[in-house]
Write a structure and sequence with these properties.
- With 182 residues, this protein is of the alpha/beta class.
- The protein has a single domain, classed as 3-Layer(aba) Sandwich (Rossmann fold).
- 32% of the residues lie in helices and 18% in strands.
- It has helices at 17-22, 48-57, 70-80, 93-103, 117-127, 143-152, and strands at 7-9, 27-30, 61-65, 83-85, 110-114, 130-134, 161-164, 167-170.
- The strands form 2 sheets. The protein has a 6-stranded parallel beta sheet with strand order 1-6-5-2-3-4, with helices on both faces.
- The longest helix has 11 residues, at 70-80.
- Bound molecules: magnesium ion (MG).
């Protein structure tokens, strides 16, 4: 299973401490671009700072793993106060291994969070950790992004959902995505 998604969300701020607890997740490996911020925007998106605080207060360990260039990732991670792995070459495992080591958590307690199928989703599955998919926060795109999204389309879940533990939480459905049970 290379494209399994544990749960899908409209935005990263919809991920709650309760939901993570129900899945046994104690650490998150976070993507930046189109997950925590608009692409190459130095500022986090609305609600992200508060969400990070909420995660930290609930003992969720956070680390950023991004394929973007050194300075972009360094400045952003300093701004939000989260450790980072830069130029991680997702979906390859090296960045995830480093992140897991720094978080000091076993794989079963980790989940990756991100918006891209062939980096974030594939990377989480190759590293064999849970995957929390978030829709890209910006629909704006250039030719390359449009091509990537067209290729990604069949893998993107149809509904916002969470299955795991003893309960299934279903979030509001999105028209833009296609349903895939895992
Ligand atoms: Mg991204």
């Amino acid at each position: 299973m290379l494209f399994s998604i544990t749960a899908a969300f409209n935005t990263v701020t919809d991920i709650s401490p309760d939901m993570l607890a129900s899945l046994g997740i104690r650490g998150l490996i976070l993507d930046i671009d189109n997950t925590l911020a608009y692409h190459n925007d130095p500022q986090p998106a609305d609600g992200v700072v508060e969400w990070i605080e909420q995660m930290k207060e609930n003992g969720i360990r956070l680390i950023i793993v991004s394929n973007n260039f050194y300075l972009r990732v360094k400045l952003f991670s300093e701004l939000v106060g989260i450790d980072c792995v830069r130029e991680s070459k997702k979906p390859f495992q090296k960045g995830y291994k480093l992140a897991a080591m720094r978080l000091g958590l076993p794989k079963r307690a980790l989940a990756a969070v991100g918006d891209q199928i062939f980096t974030d989703v594939l990377g989480a599955n190759l590293f064999k950790i849970k995957m929390l998919y978030t829709l890209p926060i910006s629909r704006k795109s250039n030719r390359l992004l449009r091509l990537i999204r067209a290729i990604e389309a069949p893998f993107i879940p149809k509904k916002i959902y969470c299955s795991g533990g003893q309960r299934t939480v279903e979030h509001r459905p999105m028209n833009a995505i296609t349903y895939k049970e895992n």
